[in-house]
Amino acid sequence: MNLELLGWSNWFASSFEQLAMEGYFLARVAQEYKGGYLLYAEFGEIAGVLAGKLRHEATSSQNLPAVGDWVAATQPNNSTQAIIHQVLPRKSKFSRKVAGAKTQEQMIATNIDTVFLVCGLDDNFNLRRIERYLVLTWESGANPVIILNKVDLCEFWEQKVLEVEAIAPGVPIIAISAITLHERGLEILQPYLQLGQTIVLLGSSGVGKSTLTNQIIGKEVHVVQTVRQGDSKGRHTTTSSELLCLPSGALLIDTPGMRELQLWDVQDGLQETFADIETLAEQCRFRDCQHQHEPGCAVREALAEGILDQKRFLNYQKLQKEKNYLARKQNQRESLNTKARWKQRTKAIRNHHKR
């Protein structure tokens, strides 16, 4: 495998120079599974496991390899496994808060250039969900492309395209039917499927990500299941993220359907997604305007005149509250972790003096 075909670029080079002199080789994480990883290197595929030091020193899952990461590894003599010693700096990452009550980050994919946000044009169509995905995508550092799938099941799909354009100005929007994409229309995706480019497919279950993956590659790599007819809910066919090499020389990261997408550290992403509301807020008379009953509120005026959609504004407020709540939880968790570290140090000092 050529490193360029795996997405290697000069952006990463400086962080590997010293490691190369120390005898490490480069590999890219293609898949994560229980107990290890599948790595792509110049000499081919190889299983990988974490070095004990890397596992011990990792303070969170963010410090461990994720699909798309470049890592520095070694291969002991006669071993069929590589040892992962270090994760190279990331140029982009898509992450979310883990499902449930825990305040932890879950890495979905790293070092991505483009995010294909896939949304079904059936009953799955949801503008508020698209906004949520856009917030996390802009925060990731990658560029979003919205894929509206299943035009064959939607009589007025052109209207839905206009609705998405209204909440995502400047973002490319592509309406397709993944089932027939290989016969007609695959060229519409070609500008993003260039040599060394990494694309990640994101969306909820049943939107057609596995079908789209099969069509882009030109063969069935994922088993496809139909959605439930009653509510258009999908059945999971992809169970873990996987980096796939495409015939065009691009790389595609397919991901499981997401039934829960909670925010994680999204200050810039929120501002980018709702730039229209942020601009209006700057025109309010008071800098700390809450857009409730304050005089001279430009946001309330835009709502009253129909310039700003009420549902979009309510979703903006909802995501703002979610972001602020998460920030408080993160600060609380960091405070507890700091306290625990000081207790460990104090205990170690006391034990040292006793000896």
Automatic annotation (TrEMBL):
The keyword DNA damage does not apply. Pfam families: RsgA_GTPase. One of its GO terms (biological process) is ribosomal small subunit biogenesis. Zn(2+) binds at C284, C289, H291, C297. GO terms for molecular function: GTP binding; GTPase activity; metal ion binding; rRNA binding. Residues 340-355 have a biased composition (Basic residues). Its EC number is 3.6.1.-. Binds 1 zinc ion per subunit. Belongs to the TRAFAC class YlqF/YawG GTPase family. RsgA subfamily. This is Small ribosomal subunit biogenesis GTPase RsgA. It comes from Mastigocoleus testarum BC008.
